[in-house]
Amino acid sequence: MAFKIINLYIFLTIVCIAFVLASGRATMGSSWLYCMTSGEGHCPDIGACNQYCLSTRFPGGGVCKGNLCCCKA
Fold first, then answer.
1. pLDDT value at position 30?
2. Which of 38, 27, 35 is nearest to 69 (CA)?
3. CB neighbours of 41 closer than 8 A, spacing ≥ 6?
4. Which residues fall within 8 angstroms of residue 37, CB to CB, at 6 or more apart?
5. DSSP of 29-63, one letter per residue?
6. How far is it, in rounded angstroms, from Cα 21 to Cα 68?
7. Cα–Cα distance between 26 and 70 in angstroms, integer?
8. 2-50 pLDDT, tens per residue?
9. Average pLDDT of 40-62?
10. Which ranges does the record mark as transmembrane (predicted)?
11. Sheet with 33-35, edge to edge strand ranges
């Protein structure tokens, strides 16, 4: 019985980690990017996106991907 409970906790932990990564819209590549949804902001130019990301919690700056501002973690 205890073994089943431990397996359940491990499974729930993995599901929670996946949910956090998916809800944060993190993408894997050479570095982690957080791309804002269209309701959160758009990307008028690279300079504005970069400045916005640097002024928040993203020390890597930002880039425009299409019409979205993506911040580098």
1. 56
2. 35
3. 52, 68, 69
4. 25, 68
5. SSS-EEEPPTTT---S-HHHHHHHHHHTT-TT-EE
6. 18
7. 10
8. 777 888 888 888 877 777 666 655 555 556 788 877 666 678 788 888 8
9. 83
10. 6-24
11. 26-27, 33-35, 68-72, 62-65
Tokens in use for 15?
């599901």
Cβ(1)–Cβ(8) below 8 Å: no
- CA dihedral for 17, 19, 23, 26, sign (positive or negative): positive
Q: Tokens in use for 9?
A: 């906790």
Question: For tokens 């819209």, what's the residue?
Answer: 25
Does residue 70 contact residue 62 with C-beta atoms inside 8 Å?
yes
Q: Which residue has the tokens 């993203």?
A: 58
The structural domain count of the chain equals 1
